[in-house]
Amino acid sequence: MEIFLDTANLDEIERWLDCGVLDGVTTNPSIMLKDGGYDLQRRALEIARLVEPRPVSVEVTANEPDEMVRQARIYAGWAANIVVKIPVINEFGRPCLGVVRQLEREGIRINMTACLSYGQALLGAKAGATYVSIFGGRVSDEGGDAPGLIHGVREWLDLWGSPSKIIVGSMRSTIDVQSSAQAGAHVITVPPSILDRFIDHKYSRDTVRTFNEDAAEALNKMRELEAVAVRVRGSGS
Ligand code: E4P
Fold first, then answer.
1. Contacts of 194 (CB under 8 A, 6+ apart)
2. Cα separation values, 124 from 23, 68, 84, 120, 190, Å
3. Which residue has the CA at smallest separation from atom 7 of ligand 1?
4. In contact, 166 and 121? CB cutoff 8 Å
């Protein structure tokens, strides 16, 4: 399973790259805004250079299919590792499957985003999307069974030999990361704050602290014994 960072924060990307656990990055217009990536091209390129050859997803910002295609071609020209995010439907409910199909045929890798249902993910895979992004947290927000959905889509992809990969995003807590991984996500995309909580544990910290204290005490005892030995040798001569 791959782990992507759901962020446009360059420091966080660098930090997690150094940990050796990062396989890519996803962004969206809200993440870009939150992380100060107001100049989309500049920030997308900065991320792409940092993580290459790993993929970075950058989302189109249009409702019209022709405009989506135009933007996608431009983004894809910025760097070889840019994957273009196309929403499964536009804000008026019009399917964007044709856009996905056309761009994939041109060799542009597509992350079909904002999937909240089995049907959406399945149709995205049929249209040829490299990735279908299931927004697990938003599925749960609506009372849906996110792990069940992920598991069902994964089963279908495997049954029919589809090359599309499931990215699970919209993480709200560490248990979402765990349940998505266990449900069969190919990729989970996680905000840095949740990845921090995924590695941390109070009891691990306490355990390490105890070991460090005991090691320091052992060192003191060894020095005390050495001092006694030196005194004994001195008094004997
Ligand atoms: C992932 O690709 C999405 O951009 C992201 O995870 C959406 O998360 P949200 O539901 O917290 O906005």
1. 171, 172, 173, 174, 176, 177
2. 22, 16, 14, 6, 22
3. 170
4. yes
- List the catalytic residues: 85
**pLDDT 10s digits, 17-53:** 999 999 999 999 999 999 999 999 999 999 999 999 9
Which amino acid residue places its CA nearest to atom 11 of ligand 1? 170
Within 6 A (CB) of ligand 1 lie 6, 26, 28, 113, 133, 135, 137-138, 169-170, 189
221 and 119 share one domain: no
Q: Are residues 48 and 118 in the same domain?
A: yes
Q: Are residues 195 and 236 in the same domain?
A: no
Structural domain boundaries enclosing 215? 201-237
Do 178 and 216 lie in one domain? The reply is: no
> What is the CA 219 to chain-centroid distance, rounded?
43
| Model confidence pLDDT, tens digit, residues 112-162 | 999 999 999 999 999 999 999 999 999 999 999 999 999 999 999 999 999
Number of domains present in the structure of the chain? 2
**Paired strand residues for 89:** 95
Backbone φ/ψ region at 143: left (φ over 0), alpha (ψ -120 to 50), beta: left
Distance (angstroms) between ligand 1 centre and the Cα of 163 equals 23
